[in-house]
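Intended use. Records such as the Amino acid/amide ABC transporter membrane protein 1, HAAT family entry shown here are meant for training and evaluating sequence-to-structure methods. They are not intended to support clinical decisions.
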Amino acid sequence: MMQELLQYLFGGITNGAIYAVIALGFSTLYSATDLINFAQGEFVMLGALLLVTLWLNLGLPLPLAFVLVVLAVGLAGIIFERLAIRTVSKPDPIVLVIITVGASIFLRGLGMVGWGRDPLAIPSFFKLDSIEIAGAYLLPQSLFIVITVTILVAALTFFYKKTLTGKAMSACAINKKAASLLGIGTERMTLMAFALATGLGAVAGVMIAPITMATYDMGSMLGLKGFCAAMLGGLGSLWGALIGGLLLGIAEALGVGFVSSGLKDAIAFLLLLLILYIRPTGILGAKSSHRF
């Protein structure tokens, strides 16, 4: 029983770390623009599918393919902001949300046309054996995901607290008009926020592809669960994204293991409803969503 519980926890932590990276994308963008990008999951999908093209089809070294994927998806995020978001004459929140939903549909269709409907398998990044801990097994790929997510959160926290650019982005989140009066280029900060958020989506896609395979429609549910994780931890909070992702992943794994596999997708939305009812600002609260 303990071995089974530990195995579910390992699986839950792995999935939770993926949700946390996607939640980081939501929180990063929301912190700088007050916009929720419901196309974030499709940028995860683009990261996974581009890895197939660059690493498996073109034979590029994995580190180079990884960097190129993140840069390419970040560039796609910049193009999306310039063409679809900045050109809106009346940028009401509901209008911008509808635009991001439309973008998600467009990107999903683009993925289907470019890579087809069939799932594409990607081998593990590591040729190592599974790590045995108290009778349960942890994949090296899973350990890589957890370590990478922790480094990302720490690096982003340092960026926002210690660098001028990060502080400028935080200022735009607090009061965009006041930041503009102080000489901060708010449009440039918004552009950087889109590039950073979509780049994080690409990182999530690259990391999850060897575990779930890459498909054109993988981003829809991943994006929604990433959003649930961001809301659970506190939308706009970096450490909240990590906490929310891990809690969601563990809750899913335990629900599937001890209740029913049919609850896997429902658990995310049950947790979202629960946190909205008990603490609408999330676990870390509203203050963290603006001050990091």
